[in-house]
Amino acid sequence: MISLGKRALLVFSLPEYKEEIGRWLWCLEDVRRTLLTQLNGISQRMLDTKIDERQTISTLLYHIALIEADWLYEEVLVSEWDPEIRSLFSLAVRSEDGSLAHIEGQSLEDHFHRLNKVREAFLSHFRSMDLTDWRRPRILEHYDVTPEWVVYHLIEHESHHRGQIFQLLKELRNN
User: Fold this and answer.
1) Which of 12, 96, 170, 172 is the most buried (most CB within 10 A)?
2) How far is CA 117 from CA 6, 50, 88, 100, in A?
3) What are the CA-CA distances from residue 101 to residues 56, 59, 61, 91, 140 (Å)?
4) Which CATH architecture has domain 53-174?
5) Which residues of 119-144 are buried (b: 16+ CB within 10 A; e: fewer)?
């Protein structure tokens, strides 16, 4: 029985998905929910300030959205990108020197819009997926990958960058 006097730390399944798939997608959504909550209301200065050699928050948000879209279209769907999603990304993920493309001057609302549109597209493709397809490897040139692994990887990827963003926020708020 759940007590009303303490928090319940539980994983749920997103509705409209096969239960196991929905549980993984709930975890993916939980990482995003925490990120967006912490970013809500931050200033343009905080988005665009570069500390030392680290990336800006804007750069990391752009990167998170672009990588999620890339894994969806290149690995899960193995198809051309939806033109609406493609239009959200004017820059490649990396600069010529291999570093992440520097993003500056885009508003928090622009970042939230991009993140939300990519996530909507991502989630929509999993609604009709069954467990067989969830675990069916996509045979690609350099590796084989399942949608299950892609979701695991995106949880890990966004969590890593969320930690970097939270560290930047902490430092920016102390300055």
Assistant:
1) 172
2) 35, 26, 9, 21
3) 10, 7, 11, 7, 26
4) Up-down Bundle (1.20)
5) bebbbeebeebeeeebeeebeeeeee
Residues 47 and 62: their CA atoms lie apart, in Å, by 11
Please, how many CA atoms are within 13 Å of residue 172, restricted to the half-sphere of its CB? 21
Token readout for 156 is 């890990």
The tens digit of pLDDT for each residue in 21-73 reads 999 999 999 999 999 999 999 999 999 999 887 799 999 999 999 999 999 99
Q: Which residues contact 163 (CB under 8 A, 6 or more apart)?
A: none
Would you say 27 and 13 are in contact if contact means Cβ atoms under 8 Å apart?
Answer: no
Q: What is the DSSP letter of 55?
A: P
| Alpha carbons 131 and 111: distance in angstroms, whole number | 32
